[in-house]
Amino acid sequence: RPRVGILALQGDVREHAAALTALGADVSLVRRESELAGVDALVLPGGESSVIDKLTRTFGLRAPLRAAISGGLPVFGTCAGLVLLADRLANGIEGQLTLGGLDVTVRRNAFGRQGESFETELAVPALQPPTASVAFIRAPVVENLGPGVSALATLPDGRVVAVEQGNLLGTAFHPELTGDRRFHQRFLETVTGRPAAAGSARAALSPA
Ligand code: GLN
């Protein structure tokens, strides 16, 4: 059982805990440096990225979090969590910092008033079946993906809303709110090692 920490300073911590617990992970909440030490992976929840940023500094978590991320800790950020994972912010509020790790620029609140919050059926080629119904809530978009970053989901207008870079995963939307656990599942697989593709496993078992 992987031990997955959730940064629990602000945001939708409970919803992530429910999704991860349902998938069999051992969940612990991270509010101080000592609670970060024992985790195999970390979730940065949705919420308000500028508030979470400030609280990581108040609680002395900024340096330990940055060290853990650059040390290779698998991290999944949703919405505000994606903002926190970005190396660059197109439009942070004054003084807002990110933790960094993902070689991307993130634009906060990218959908303007009309589309501030919406649910949509999103094409996600890496999932089976390759669509997911997801919730965007004052969501960011990803711009300027570095060479090591792959887009996992792109809106019909071309804007990138989910990315992966090694064992870092970021989504502009909230799979923890719509009950689709396949993103959490994919994240847990980066922690425990991906299972062999069904086709190849079957081939290995039955030569016919
Ligand atoms: N707009 C928020 C931010 O930039 C994110 C909103 C969310 O997490 N639902 O921090």
Query: What is the topology, as strand order, of the major beta sheet?
Result: 2-1-3-4-12-11-10
Ligand inventory: glutamine
Q: Provide the low-confidence segments as ranges.
A: 196-208
Q: Write the element-wise H/E pattern from the N-terminal end onward.
A: EHEHEHHEHEEEEEEEEHHH
Quaternary organisation of the protein chains: single chain
Number of domains: 1
Helix content: 25-40%
Number of helices: 8
How far apart the termini lie comes to 34 Å
Strand content: 25-35%
Question: What is the averaged pLDDT score?
Answer: 93
Reading off the top of the CATH hierarchy, the class is best stated as Alpha Beta
**In one word, what is the shape?**
globular
Protein structure class? alpha/beta
**Largest β-sheet summary:** 7 strands, mixed
CATH architecture: 3-Layer(aba) Sandwich
Radius of gyration: 17 Å
